[in-house]
Design goal:
mainly alpha; DUF6545; Rhopdopsin 7-helix transmembrane proteins; 2 domains; membrane; single chain
């Protein structure tokens, strides 16, 4: 039951990721790595489809008995081979292309081996699961040795490549890579446990069903960790963007008293929206526009602000600013050299807004 739920969730995640990747390629294009990532996501998504009992039965009836199992492990092999190319540590596209060509060789050998060994398995065993009786058939055992062996090889290659990225990663990206490594190692160990079970049954006639259970548990936990590792950067970035949007929308509103005062004196500083209408945009863009409009207005009002304004408290600045606004509205302009007032606290957008926010809170 738990494995089934996880499979459904995994399928949904991979399906969404596939749609996202196709949209990214449509918008931005991409080289070998982008194509490999899309292939990996597509292969793993189809593998979940093929693992469905109804789909498997359809393939077995339409093609040949055991076709669903060949398709499942073939798609998993293609997905893992694509991940090897995705995670391959290289600074040039040419080297990555060469690695893709190299990885095509063991992939083709594995897929051909799966097809040949499936034909050697008796019809009544082709859709059976791992057990003491089925693994004593040489064709059946060889099929799972090839499938599990290639998956273990590919997963460990991915781990090896990701370890090289760890030296340069930091923050949430490093956390994501560590989770990915854990997931891939668990999946690889699960494949090796399956290999150990098959070899034990075939060579030593010892059936350790515990190994099958261990392989299943490791595969489920590894898949969850892999999905978390893949989704973590996107989820982290989205969460951070949402929190930043909420914070900036709040600060945008906090600036309103200062913005209202400045634009009341100088309406021309208000930037027009699209087609002259009110602008509808992201909180960050709205926040940035409000800062620009306020600073433009303060610069035009600066000849009317005495030198005391720069060193005054925020309460005193509020009084001086109101006086300057009244003078500007009476005269209709300001004469004299303009200067920057309320310099930013730092280089970021939030630092730029901080002195304006302090003044706005007093108004």
């Amino acid at each position: 039951m738990v494995a089934g739920i996880i499979n459904v969730i995994a399928f949904a995640v991979f399906a969404c990721a596939m749609c996202w990747r196709l949209d990214q390629i449509r918008r931005q294009g991409g080289g070998v790595q982008a194509v490999a990532m899309t292939t990996a996501i597509g292969s793993l998504t189809l593998a979940f489809v093929v693992s469905n009992k109804d789909v498997a039965a359809f393939l077995n009836d339409a093609l040949f008995t055991g076709a669903s199992r060949v398709a499942l492990y073939g798609l998993l092999a293609l997905g893992v081979a694509s991940l090897i190319v995705v995670f391959f540590f290289s600074s040039t596209e040419t080297v990555r292309q060469r690695r893709a060509g190299v990885e095509a060789i063991p992939l083709v050998v594995a897929v051909v081996g799966l097809q040949i060994t499936m034909l050697l398995i008796p019809l009544d065993l082709r859709t059976q699961g791992l057990s003491a009786s089925t693994t004593r058939n040489a064709g059946f055992a060889l099929f799972f040795l090839i499938a599990s062996g290639y998956l273990a090889y590919g997963l460990l290659q991915c781990v090896r490549s990701i370890r090289q990225f760890l030296t340069m990663a930091a923050g949430y990206l490093k956390v994501s890579l560590l989770i990915l490594i854990v997931g891939l190692i668990l999946l690889a160990v699960g494949s090796m446990a399956q290999i150990a079970y098959v070899l034990g049954s075939l060579v030593f006639e010892v059936s350790l069903l515990q190994l099958v259970r261990v392989a299943t548990i490791l595969s489920v936990v590894g898949l969850v960790a892999f999905l978390v590792g893949i989704c973590y950067p996107m989820a982290f970035a989205k969460t951070r963007a949402l929190l930043a949007g909420v914070r900036r929308r709040r600060r945008y509103r906090e600036l309103e008293p200062l913005w209202t005062l400045v634009t009341w004196a100088i309406p021309s500083v208000v930037l027009p929206g699209h087609g002259g209408t009110a602008l509808r945009s992201t909180p960050t863009v709205l926040f940035e526009r409000r800062i620009v409009e306020i600073r433009d207005g303060l610069t035009q009002l600066s000849p009317l602000l005495s030198e005391e304004f720069d060193d005054a408290s925020d309460a005193e600045r509020a009084k001086l600013l109101r006086t300057a606004v009244d003078e500007y509205r009476e005269a209709g302009t300001s004469k004299g050299a303009v200067r920057d007032v309320l310099p930013p606290d730092g280089t970021s957008l939030d630092d730029d807004a901080e002195p304006l926010l302090r003044l706005a809170r007093v108004l």
